[in-house]
Fold this protein.
Amino acid sequence: MRDAYELMTLDDLTPDMQILEEMIGLDVLKEILRHYGGLTFYIPKITRFDSLIKKYIKLFPEKTFKQIARELNVSEQFLKKFR
């Protein structure tokens, strides 16, 4: 056995860690906890990724801002700065 994390099961996880485990799996979560335990991570909304939004708009020129806003879960007003 390498460390205590090897003993970890789903029942040992806090609710927020259970959400992550559902997305990435227990083995990956154990590695994150092993190497980054104690750190606080902020997970931003898509509105923090201007270059990604610009790429998305450029990739779908046929879509209206209303359609893109709905798909990205942002407001049309937010998208106006990318004109």
The chain has two domains: 4-36, 46-82. The CA atoms of residues 8 and 75 lie 42 Å apart. Helices lie at 15-24, 26-36, 50-59, 65-72, 76-79.
